[in-house]
Amino acid sequence: MNTERRVRCELLGTILTLPARPVRVVSFVPGLTEAIWAMQLQDRVVATSHYCRRHVDAGDRPVAGDYLRIDDAALQAMQPDLVLMTGGVQHGVTRRLAQAGLPVYALPLADSFHGILENIRRLGALLGEMAAAIALTTRMEAEAAALRAANSGKRRRTYTELWFGRFPRCVGGLTYVHDLLTLAGADNIFGHEPAGYLPLDLAAVSRGRPGRLVFFWEEDDTAVDVPALLAERGWTGAWPFQVIEAGIQPGRNLIHDGPSCLDTARWLAGVLRRDV
Asked: What is the pLDDT of residues 170-188, one digit of tens each?
């Protein structure tokens, strides 16, 4: 029986020779790492990134790096048979590792909740565990449908601001964050924009006067003083609104694209229902 297969990585334009069931996996993608744990396949993972440990108990597995800083020699020494990466800002690192001869597969950044499900299906195929991936995505689809039904009534006009380190962005329609907001019962004021993460348009926010302002920032990276930010922009007391602060803890992390993204939608739905 053939124990190897050839797999094409579209993002890199490369062909990988993988075992039928890779057993030495290194993941630099927190959402995929969490999905592996959710599929009960964590025994296949030999190392993770620093950020993966926000979402899984990695035990004594070594940290192979973070999102952009990776020690190529240390990674080679781990002898992985599959290295999981993404596109976007990680693309340069991903290409360098692939050129060094590592078995790198880069999955696309999800533009929607359905993109998250598709990546989990693709992950299951890479691991040779299609049934587990189908079971997980089917469960997530059912949870999303229940959320959508529960929050299909009045929608709360919502502005969402994501801080990626020192760089803030607002949320357009071409991102899974927009879908999570929708599942939670929010009416994203920039959801009509045909883009993902947009430069701030503070004047449009002031004109629109949304009743909910959601801010995400990473506590272990760049702290954001939200009350000071509101005062600086002249928003404090300018109109009635509820401030919602999200962070890196599982179930409240708006930029996480693993299975617990639905926990985040559930948490946000509960907060959004509160009176302003």
From this structure: 999 999 999 999 999 999 9
Contact present, 156 and 212 (Cβ < 8 Å): yes
- The span from the CA of 62 to the CA of 47, in Å, is 5
CATH of domain 4-141: 3.40.50.1980
* Domain spans, the chain: 4-141, 153-272
E strand spans, 24-155? 25-27, 45-49, 63-65, 82-86, 104-107
Q: Is 7 exposed, middle or buried (CB count within 10 Å of its CB: 0-12, 13-18, 19+)?
A: middle
Q: In this structure, is the dihedral angle defined by the CA atoms of residues 122, 126, 129 and 132, taken in order, positive or negative?
A: negative
Block residue for tokens 């879908």 = 179
CATH of domain 153-272: 3.40.50.1980
The reported pTM is 0.95
